[in-house]
Amino acid sequence: MMSKIQNILDNNWVKSFVFYSIFRAFYGAGILLVAWVFATESQAPPWVSVIFLLCSMIFSRILLKKIKEYRLSNK
Question: Of all residues in the chain, what percent carry a pLDDT higher than 70?
């Protein structure tokens, strides 16, 4: 039983999925916190928060790609 679980955890697809999930959880929570503070505590119009969230989506893809490249180059 443990060898089956170990084989699953050693799979590169599973490792990538787990890494991606953890990255999204922390990054997403941080971005939502910043967007909420920005929307409620600033004098900016609401559409500014929407633009911030859209830009953060693009930035997160670039950041994740760079992290993956860095991880692969250090293997």
Answer: 97
